[in-house]
Automatic annotation (TrEMBL):
PANTHER family: ABC TRANSPORTER ATP-BINDING PROTEIN (PTHR42711), ABC TRANSPORTER ATP-BINDING PROTEIN NATA (PTHR42711:SF5). Keywords: ATP-binding, Cytochrome c-type biogenesis, Nucleotide-binding, Transport. InterPro entries: AAA+_ATPase, ABC_transporter-like_ATP-bd, ABC_transporter_ATP-binding, ABC_transptr_haem_export_CcmA, P-loop_NTPase. This is Heme exporter protein A. Belongs to the ABC transporter superfamily. Pfam families: ABC_tran. It comes from Neobacillus ginsengisoli. SMART domains: AAA. Gene3D superfamilies: P-loop containing nucleotide triphosphate hydrolases. CDD domains: ABC_DR_subfamily_A.
């Protein structure tokens, strides 16, 4: 589903990504861990076609990112740190707007169902500007999946969520997985990574330093691996 070869991203004479090679199969849910400044969010932005790589090759669903970026955009859902929502719009208005951008049929029905799925039906027609950070994040998640993307890119999606909202988000991710969606999730929350992901990638100084399957949802295994690699212990 996603094939990355020798990906390099340089900005202001600084190497952010240093020759990343990565292969992700359809339906995998992958967590990307690493210290601040490691290049995690930059990797997602490249895949979301928001920034261009300096060199290297990226293919998504067999399509070359450089040559077929418009087709790729239609099958990718992206949740950055900002919600991308219009704060004077309601959840329904936001989702209908973004659904129309993707040419979704019966978009209002889909929007109402998604608002229900993220637990905010009572606020369907309230302006987003009145929402808490956690509520905004829930609607932002709905926005990212309104077009049922084949690839879902999540940049620290659990930030600002209470336990109830975390459970809702995890359920959304797992539901998308059942539909065959491939998910990459940048996170600092090892617990959530261990609970919902199949695989962990650890990034340090713009390189992938480890790539492993999660065994028995073992949080301690993930934490120990991370500490060893990011503290420079071999």
């Amino acid at each position: 589903m996603i094939e990355i070869q020798k990906l390099i991203k340089q900005a202001d004479n600084k190497l952010i990504l240093r020759g990343v090679d990565l292969s992700i199969t359809k339906g995998e849910t992958v967590a990307i861990l690493g210290p601040n400044g490691a290049g995690k969010s930059t990797l997602l932005k490249v895949l979301a076609n928001l920034i261009k790589p300096t060199s290297g090759q990226v293919k998504i669903n067999g399509m070359d990112l450089k040559k077929e970026h418009l087709k790729i955009k239609k099958i990718v859902g992206y949740l950055p740190h900002s919600s991308l929502l219009y704060d004077h719009f309601s959840p329904l208005e936001n989702l209908v707007f973004f659904g129309n951008v993707y040419g979704i049929n019966n978009v209002e029905t889909s929007a109402i169902e998604l608002v229900k799925e993220v637990g905010l039906s009572f606020f369907l027609n309230e302006p987003v500007k009145n929402f808490s950070r956690g509520m905004i994040q829930r609607i932002a998640i709905a926005r990212a999946i309104i077009h049922e993307p084949e690839v879902l890119l999540l940049d620290e999606p659990h930030t600002g969520l209470d336990q109830g909202a975390i459970a809702i988000l995890n359920n959304v991710i797992l539901t998308m997985k059942e539909k065959g969606t491939t998910t990459l999730m940048v996170t600092h929350d090892f617990k959530q990574a261990a609970e919902i992901c199949d695989r962990i990638i650890i990034v340090k100084n713009g390189k992938i330093v480890d790539d492993f399957k999660i065994k028995d949802r073992d949080l301690n295994f993930v934490s120990e691996k991370y500490q060893l690699l990011t503290e420079g212990v071999s």
